[in-house]
Amino acid sequence: MTGRNDSKLVLASDHAGFELKETVKAEMLRQGRSVEDCGTHSPQPANWAEYGALAAAKVAADPEHIMGILVCGSGIGMSIVANRFPGVRAALCHNEDAARLARRHNNANVLSLGARVVDAASALRIVAVFLETAFEGGRHQVRLDYLRDHVEKKAF
Questions:
Q1: Tally of structural domains, the chain
Q2: Active-site hit among 15, 41, 105, 150
Q3: CATH number of residue 117's parent domain
Q4: pLDDT by residue (tens digit) across 43-81?
Q5: pTM greater than 0.85
Q6: Residues with Cβ < 8 Å from 79, sequence gap 6 or more?
Q7: Is 150 a catalytic residue?
């Protein structure tokens, strides 16, 4: 399997993640990727839940073809809101190994970053690994099927 380099990307941040989101967006656009910025559009105080939900809803609408990158101060809030949406598998990653495993074993389709936790250069490497790593499927697919069939339908 290949990575998700051809996926449309949706980005979102709160005020704490604004600068890092803009850095990631500039790099993705430089690479010629399709990017939709769901906000916030300034460093003024903003509600992470609102902007994270906007992006996560877009991923949930087409989880096989849209991926998200969400940024707040810690990355925790954004991952919490994103994982409330069916079909969204958001992973908070602070390093490249976590990003690789999030994709390889969990087929994560949303990357959450903490702007107060990772510097811009590290974040760009994490994003690159996340987007280039393929899902292994196999034994890992069984777990995703369980999430879809039981947890998302609250049938456990």
A1: 1
A2: 105
A3: 3.40.1400.10
A4: 999 999 999 999 999 999 999 899 999 999 999 999 999
A5: yes
A6: 70, 90, 91, 92, 110, 112
A7: no
